[in-house]
Amino acid sequence: MQHPVLLHIKEHTWLWVAGLVALAALAVVLNQSTPAALIFMVVGILVILKGQGTDLLTIVTDDPLSPEEDELNLAAKPATPRGDAR
Fold first, then answer.
1. Looking at the keywords, is Transmembrane helix present (predicted)?
2. E strands within 1-86?
């Protein structure tokens, strides 16, 4: 079972993006260019990840290096011999 807060963020990602854009726009109006740039950068990353269908919470919560996946990748790819570096 997922935590309710994480489930809320997953289901309402576009609302979070819209809120962050509004916050960045407010920072621009208040001449806070560095925080605005940082917030716009985070918004851009969120839009890219959401646009390609990546689950944002999977990036944070899943183990990126599970032993099962490593073994399958090694078995699928044959070793390539290295040539002489003359």
1. yes
2. none
Separation of alpha carbons 55 and 5, rounded Å: 15
30 neighbors 14 (Cβ within 8 angstroms): no
User: Exposed, middle or buried, 51 (CB in 10 Å: 0-12/13-18/19+)?
Assistant: exposed
Q: What is the pLDDT of residues 57-76, one digit of tens each?
A: 676 666 666 666 555 555 55
Listed by start position, the domains of the chain span: 13-59
CB of 57 closer than 8 Å to CB of 11 = no
Q: What is the pTM of this model?
A: 0.59
Q: Which residues contact 43 (CB under 8 A, 6 or more apart)?
A: 17, 20, 21, 24
Least-confidence region, from 22-26, 38-42, 51-55: 51-55
